[in-house]
Amino acid sequence: MITRRLLSFLFISYLRIATTTAQECSADDATCSSSSSTPDTTTNQEQCKDTHDNCSFWAKQGECDANPNYMHIFCPISCNTCPEPRQASTLEALLLIEVSKYGKSQKVEGKDAVKTLEVIERTVDYMKNVVFKGGVDLSEDIVVECTNKEELCAFWAAIGECEANPGYMKLKCAPSCQTCDMIDINKRCPPLTDDVVPALLPGGLNAMFERIVATAPGNNTDLEIAPGMTNYSVVIHSRPAPVEGEAVIDQKLDLEQPPWLITFNNFLTDEECEQLIILGHKSEYARSKDVGDLQADGSYDSVVSTSRTSENAWCSYQKKCRSEEVPQMIHERIAMITGIKANHSEDFQILKYEPGQFYRRHHDYIELQADRQCGPRVLTFFLYLNDVEEGGATNFPLLDIAVKPKKGQAVLWPSVLNSDPKAKDYRTDHEAQDVIKGIKFGANAWLHLYDYMAASEMGCT
Q: What is the top-level taxon of the source organism (predicted)?
């Protein structure tokens, strides 16, 4: 229902357009045709078509019901959800023109068209009478940044995504969610309070690795295997010297000793490896990207890098991949082994390296996260999902150690120091060496000092 105030505004806009209509006249026959910019009253409905090659496959896998917000819009033929043609009123068309001033033009189609138009009406009112009239205290940079970044922002807001997926929506669809103030990272992400307990305290990293080695069921045949656990064994490739008596917590001593690096044999079953590869295809592999420039909303852009040529897919919570049985079980297995809760882990980044692809020397620690709500990445748990015919090792050049891919194996290393879990341990630089023959599939689990999932939900990572 369009409010009287907005109706008046749109009517005035309509009159302004109508009275400035240009006339194009022919000198030959003295006839004139209007070139008015008055909008067509037919909705901007593109030809109904699937927009991805995997739509049919996903539909057969039940994704039309499991992930309707994406599938019904981008795979309408496969899901049988092509919208009925509808005729928009002139005022509705003007409303669409007005909302396009605040970002991308918005789509209004299908059974939620009325709800979507209501969101658009509220968006225009919010931007005109709150944001641009100083109803909220915003810097000029934030006002400029507050735009709808996607053409489906209004539709997503209409079906509840501002509440269901706030970390994305409140930043990328801020006008539709009426959250321009949340673009300011200082307001969105206040510092953690002192009562929040980190996953690791100074000295806790070494103690964790000692416990992992001592309790590996494959190394101790008398230990009972816990539910959801495999009969894995641990191989130590690098470690600091064992300490007799009370350990001294000192960064200088830390750097005088080698860092931890261990592998787990039989960490995953064959079925788990195969399922993760399938989920990678389902989540859609795309060119891997690196962290780019800082954005106005406090997030960082992602950039394609010549030093990284692999492809990856995110087994994310939003795509309902993380909550599937196998990923959930593996997250919990990692949590049981490390003693760090599963919500401290990022979603699995499932990787695919074809012959000639690589990731040159880098470090997993991201400096900007050290003081954010998630804290830095403290551990990398890398999973090998298949055997590779040749190449593809994970190489640690400063340690002179290369771990060859082996199906079901995992490798674990720290990104931080035992004496200070917020400080980067530069010695665990590593690279994914070129695959020479075959295809390499793997998965990263990055564990953070604090609750990553809670921070991610609010766009605070």
A: Eukaryota
